[in-house]
Amino acid sequence: MKIVVLAGGISTERHVSLVSGTGICRALRELGHRAVLVDMFLGLEKYRGDLTDIFDAPDGLCGEVHIGTSAPDLAAVRASREDQSASVLGKDVLTVCAMADAVFLALHGQSGEDGRIQATLELMGVPYTGSDYVSSGMAMDKSITKRFMDSEGIRTAPWRDIRYTEADIPRLTEELEVPCAVKVVNGGSSIGVELPDTKEELAAALHNVLRYGNHVVVEQKIRGRELTVAVLGDRYLPAVEIMPNGEFFNYETKYQSGGATEVCPAPITDDQWHQMGEAALKLHRALGLSVYSRTDFLLDEAGRAWCLEVNTLPGMTPTSLVPKEAAAVGMSYGELCQTILDESLRVRKAGH
User: What is this structure's pTM?
Assistant: First the structure.
């Protein structure tokens, strides 16, 4: 098959996306597909060949990529593009997507997981991987997802939905209880997340998070073990326990070697695994998600699982959490990529 692996983009998770996309593209090519990696934001500005030959480009246009210790400088990325328009779609991106048999979405964060690229591809009649645009958009918004958790009886920390400005911070600092978690509603990779324990830290947290947006959820801080469970098709996979070597699982500890220890299957009871797996599957279905997702939890000392959020396009680097879970049931990285592709084509053909 001719496959465009769409990655990069202009979100704070750009670097993670490029590493996911590179791994996926190379795996698909090893399986015999004519896969090519395309940066959604930069497009094909550097490609000098004929577009009709692009699916046979050496190494699928994959380069050497890595994830730094901090989020990318998006202003620098914007400045590097020849096309200085406001479009988040780079040169020839939609043209080459229209030439493909399918688009494998390796995007993370805004413009990738929020439903906009899914809606665009759907209007073009191009099959793509993962959930549809409506479900993706709802799941990307932590406030909407929290409402689904509440309505479905999925245990989650008490929370508030807040829109604010700098001028509101003194009042909110007085009103809100600590310790708490402050999360921008559309963030990912722990960017735009603060965990204040004191009122002074809360004021600073509210100020810091404004860099990423003025719409947040503020929830009671639950202390417990960090775990995650993936849904693939109609089943949930073994849980992973994440043990950060820092204070919590932030951007750096997620992606740097030695930043965290990840154990799969997690050392938990079957009852605890099923508790989280059933909640993940319930949330997946309630939001109308399809193909795959990954839901994050905290497991408290009493053995109760508290649902944090769901990811519709979770990290797919070869060492990411979903590939670890797939490996625990005997599925290789390449087999996982092929399964996601096959299930997505089935779902798209069925009109979902």
Answer: 0.92
